[in-house]
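Annotated sample (chain length 269).
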Amino acid sequence: MGEPLRIGLVGAGKISRACLDTLPRLPGLRLTAVTDLNRARAEAAAKAAEAAIETAAEAAAKAADPEFYYRPGGGPLLDMGPYYLSAPVHLLGPVVRVTGAASRPRAQRSVGSGPRAGERFAVEVDTHVTGVLEHRGGALTTLLMSFDVHAARLPRIEVHGSECSLSVPDPNTFDGPVELWRDGAWEPLAPSAGYAGSARGYGLADMARALGAGRPHRASAELARHVLDVMLTLLDAARERTSLPVGTTCSRPEPVPLVGEPSASAGHG
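Output written by the structure step:
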């Protein structure tokens, strides 16, 4: 293997920490830079790439400031949509039109833990978003993203076809059982694609592998732009209480072959 692919980490929050935990298992990648609006946090993340230095108490203190979730740029759709919209694009292809509705049941929220526990703050975005996504091939996805649900037993993603139904894992956890309903019962399916034990950061390893093989990588800028466009168009449709076309598109990513830990090809400095 040649020189590893050098990567930079943009943002040094909770999700980035999960990526840092995964990087040592991913050959062919080298973290060379970290950037964050908070310099101290960026420096801590850079050090954590070599050794875990953040304590649980420090992590909890960072997580105890929830206001940004409820300001412009936040909300359930922009927070979790990259996971739950990328998955149906992978399964069903790009989205061509969206219909949306949204609400804001509470004008204020309270900080639940940490030194600011009990402090109230204003809610500036819709916190319950629903939508119907029309895919290029004609399939429809029904979407529900909410900060106003205490608990639920709904599956994260199900796909219903003419012959059977498919239940797939939560894309925010990267792994889990796949079940197929047919002939009156659910049955587990053996994995047929994907990285075994996948976790945050595997998309980077797939990118390095793709660059070495001269093929497009799956977590591409094209896919990210399309998913962001779908989310923003859905929010516009919800505000206008209408249906709107999506201006971008993307190729449907190819399934990941069933492999163990990803490896990156040589030749990238």
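Annotation: Confidence is low (pLDDT under 50) at residues 51-60, 264-269.
Annotation: The first strand starts at residue 5 and ends at 10.
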